[in-house]
TrEMBL record:
Boundaries of every DUF4960 domain copy: 209-462
Naturally occurring in which organism (per UniProt): Flavobacterium saccharophilum
Protease in keyword set: no
Keywords attached to this entry: Signal
Signal peptide: 1-24
InterPro entries: DUF4960
Family annotation (Pfam families): DUF4960
UniProt protein name: DUF4960 domain-containing protein
Keyword Endoplasmic reticulum on entry: no
Length: 465
């Protein structure tokens, strides 16, 4: 009897041990190795004596540094739980300009952390008539668009500054913004110049939002709804045009720019290919009209003859709800070599010619319809693409300084008969960030203003061509 019981108890012990190991693995690894009360926690993290805010649930460490701080080579101070080690060498200077990731290990447990460091802007806010400007600390610019008809010759900006900073001209002073204005910012005896560009929309501009729904109120795709809401709140001369109305012969003669933002499906809808529709839109261009095509609508350049047959976007993909994912990295673009192009004016950049559009940690569907150059389509590089499509590639992925990898923003310039077309085609161009499959809302995208500025600049640029 004892022998029988011993054998069964041995089996039970083995089963319990296996269950414990499986549970331990699930707790340690399937959730990214996170356990809020883990012995692998970072208990304190400082940069130049400034303590970071640690979120043990996400592993995010946020550090806000005073204006003027140099974070390119700093030795951080870090305290770990007893017995824990990290692969971040705190004895060596670290560049915190971009997020820094590291892992903390304690026995068979680990946690991954990401340090995001922000240096305070000298300008907390810059408003005119209650409208906020975009302050770019990399390019040292202040950019804003005021309502149509605003008199730029006598405006009083209200400027809120970071502690210890002064500015000239001062807040509340009456200023003529007809031309760019230089503001001198001084802190700790050092001064730097910021250039303010204040503009108004093109006078009398008539713009249209093109959609597959019969009316704007019947749009169902949340990305298209969000884009349309912004569009109609920004342009006083905005109107909605359905594909059905275009097919029926809608008068487009008074429209300067048509924007088609299509996010609903990777394949364009059948109605877009109907002869009556394509003929009408081709005539629209021939008569001086301009097109902005974004997200999956970028593919329309082929059907409208904007590019030679078969030379439209060759890499089209993306998820649809409830699918999608969260990436810890922020997604952006490189427009190196085209920094002075009007569509990029006023963007918040993280280095010269590079800007983020989608914040790390934001839920995304990655709706993409771009040209993949190196291996596909026989283009080889940017020059080959330009020669074969007749377009100008204005932007690529953030790592691509030569614009030879992906064509994410392109312009198809004027010919004798046709006006301009601009396409914006990367997954980072995301107006609405859905909840995940469990219904948990996405965090807000802190770079959404770059998407708005890029779109408004593109429409104004097209209208002036």
């Amino acid at each position: 009897m004892k022998k029988f019981i011993y054998r069964n108890w041995t089996k039970v012990s083995l089963i319990l041990a296996m269950v414990f190991m499986i549970t331990a693995c699930e707790n340690s690894f399937e959730s990214g190795g996170f356990d809020v009360n883990s012995p692998s926690n970072v208990t304190s993290f400082k940069i130049n004596g400034v303590a970071g805010k640690i979120d043990q649930k996400t592993g995010n460490i946020n550090v806000t540094m005073p204006y003027g701080s140099d974070i390119t080579a700093v030795k951080p101070e870090m305290v770990l739980e007893a017995g824990a080690t990290s692969n971040l060498d705190v004895t060596m200077p670290v560049n915190f300009t971009n997020p820094v990731k590291f892992r903390v290990v304690n026995g068979n447990l680990f946690k991954d952390y990401t340090v995001t460091t922000v240096v305070l802007s000298p300008i907390k806010s810059f408003t005119v008539n209650g409208i906020a400007a975009t302050v770019n600390d990399v390019s040292k610019t202040i950019t804003m668009t005021l309502p149509e008809g605003t008199n730029l010759t006598a405006l009083k900006p209200i400027i809120e500054l970071t502690e210890g900073v002064s500015i000239s001209p001062a807040s509340g002073q009456t200023i003529d913004f007809t031309n760019p204005v230089t503001f001198i910012i001084t802190s700790n005896g050092k001064s730097v110049n910021y250039t303010a560009n204040v503009g108004v929309p093109v006078t009398g501009l008539v713009v249209a939002f093109l959609g597959t729904a019969a009316t704007r109120a019947e749009i169902t795709n949340m990305d298209e709804i969000t884009a349309a809401d912004w569009f109609f709140s920004t342009f006083s001369g905005a109107k909605y045009i359905s594909f059905n109305s275009v097919e029926s012969g809608a008068d487009l003669s008074d429209v300067d720019v048509i924007w088609w933002h299509f996010d609903s499906a990777a394949n364009l809808p059948a109605i877009a290919y109907k002869p009556a529709v394509t003929i009408s839109l081709k005539n629209f261009r021939s008569n001086g009209g301009n097109l902005l095509l974004t997200s999956f609508a970028s593919q329309y350049v082929d059907a409208l003859g904007i590019v030679p047959s078969g030379k439209g976007p060759n890499n089209v993909f993306g998820d649809f709800p409830p699918n999608g994912f969260v990436d810890a990295n922020s997604w952006g673009m490189s427009f190196v070599g085209h920094e002075s192009h009007p569509i990029f004016e006023g963007l918040t950049t993280y280095e010269n010619g590079k800007a983020n559009l989608l914040q790390g940690g934001t839920f995304r569907l990655n709706h993409t319809a771009w040209w993949f150059l190196p291996e596909w389509g026989g283009y080889g590089n940017g020059e080959g693409w330009r020669n074969q499509t007749g377009g100008t590639n204005l932007a690529s992925e953030a790592w691509d300084n030569n614009l030879d990898g992906r064509v994410t923003i392109a312009e198809f310039p004027n010919t004798e008969t046709n006006k301009n077309v601009v396409v914006i085609s990367m997954g980072a161009y995301d107006w609405y960030n859905e909840a995940n499959s469990s219904g948990v809302p996405s965090q807000a995208n802190e770079f959404i203003n770059n998407i708005k500025i890029l779109t408004q600049n593109s429409i104004n640029y097209l209208a002036k061509k």
